[in-house]
Amino acid sequence: MAAGADAFAWATFPAMPTRRVYCSAAHRDGQLFVLGGCGGGGRALGTAEVLDLQAQRWTTLPPLPTPRAGAAVLTLGKQILVVGGVDAAQSPLASVEVYHVDEGKWEKKAALAQPSMGISAVQRDGVVYALGGMGADTSPQALVRVYEPAKDHWQPLPSMPTPCYGASAFLQGNKIFILGGRQGKLPVTAFEAFDLETRSWTRYPSVPSRRAFAACAMADGVVFSLGGLQQPGPHNFYSRPHFVNTVEMFDPAQGELHVSG
Length: 261
Prior knowledge:
single chain; 261 residues; mainly beta; four-stranded antiparallel β-sheet; 0% helix; Kelch_domain_containing_8; kelch repeat; Kelch-typ_b-propeller; Kelch domain-containing protein 8B; cell cycle
């Protein structure tokens, strides 16, 4: 049963010690880890900080071995895994690093086969799945890679039907749902799912409206696509952007699509 609006409230926490954008965050056991990002000069940072949510106190951690922004970050037990992103020269990274929370130190892990930024990543039972991204040639990638920490090795899986970067990925049961993202500067409307047991892809109906920078979320197995920029004409998508309040919802189990706005 959904909670009423009065069950939620905003709280103000201490500001981050370091100003930055395109940082990556992960939560573990009452702590919020904020890693990398870009500083005022636009260069990637190696800064790592953690906020104790109960004590409301920031602590500076040892810096990332490889400064990066826009990385995929996942919590794996007592470790924080950092994958890809861009370096100080704005080039995609293949490097993968892990922070050992109890030991307070970083360790380099097996790198991706190809440099990539804008990766979408999820984990299931400690196994990491990294989907899509954009390579050094700025082309969107259809790559799907799986990483088992115990083996410290990346293996390829069947590629996504639609290459993209910056997409939203959600784990539901034995499926990874992925939607949104971009190809170059244009938004992707594809909505697809990868079955972890059969290792096969399913295409669902595309997102009805072509919107850039839409927010995507999954709740109770239902996928939502909200807001964004929409260009009604065939010209440059960003020349005269139109801000929209569109909300589109798709229930994969029922095959039902709902649109508002």
